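Reply to dn_fold:

You asked what the input looked like. This is it:
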Amino acid sequence: MVDDAGRARRWRLLLGDAADGCAPRLAGADAAVDAALAALYDVPDASAGTRGRRSAGLGGSAPRVARWLGDIRTYFPSSVVQVMQRDAVERLDLTRLLLEPELLGAVQPDVNLVGTLLSLSRVLPERTKETARQVVAEVVRQIEARVADRTTSAVTGALDRAARTHRPRLPDVDWNATIRANLTHYLPEHRTVVPERLVGHGRRQQVVAKEVVLEIDQSGSMAESVVYASVFGAVLAKMRTLKTTLIAFDTEVVDLTDSLTDPVDVLFGVQLGGGTDINRAIAYGQERITRPADTLFFLISDLFEGGVRDEMVKRMAAMKSAGVQVIVLLALSDSGAPAFDRENAAALAALGIPAFACTPDAFPDLLALAMTGGDVGAWAQREIAAAGEPHR
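and this is what came back:
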């Protein structure tokens, strides 16, 4: 339970100067917290001609901003710091200050900050580039720690299940699975199971078992998805049983496959912003596919097409008819429901191509299901029902 004093404190922190006269003044650590909030949210609202409402306003010098970034990391948890940093960048003129290495060194690295840095990559001065790479590398490291082991385990297990055989060599027999499959042939008098069929895995091949094509829309709205997809691409590229292709596109197409050994290089090869020509990107991706029946094609895009829409739909239909498993991810991020082109999503759904948003934590399971030929559409519906994400 929050007592009256606690409620008054919360309202004072929420309202700032507007609470003067109806809430007590703050002191000590609370006063420092209020000052950090005021630096970002307390200024005159020029458009409305009022003041006292927490809106937006932080001074312009890099040293002052750097001190403020240190303060909020002292007084607020990491999740709140990330929100406040995003507010400071989006609502204030701090993009210019992110070109300063001193300021970048004070910022808490997160996915949204990486997206901002990638959008600025073409104008980063030389003295800032190394600091920017360190920020991006730290976020990549965090994401890899979060998803790499689960992704590798899920994909390896899926490929093993796909290789299961009912005529295994003796060393390859899965005895637990064999016993379960033959329990109806249990002989009580002999207290044993007589197996009518053996279950096991084929010998693990060193050749490529599946091809995975990741096509990433690098329009500005897809920044978070670009970061996650690049890291997943780098993780998959380390697996010898997969052939992984990573393609980024706007109105141009950039093949980043050769950079997959270093996801930081991949991300700095992305140029966020600009228009979108999905049809052109799909045409390029089609040419990279050598074994359609063993290929997973992920289009990570909000489907806002600036190219030839009808041709884009025809290409997707052709890939599906050729045996490629085609999946559209409207977002690969933690940010919730994205804006997307519902008409294009509906056209793809009519072809049997699912289009839905996916979180990074759910992506390994999606990969495993797709590799074993599972019903991705039904899986997506269950995920959507649980998370409230959009689907077509």
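The chain is about 50% helix and 10% strand.
Hope that clears it up.
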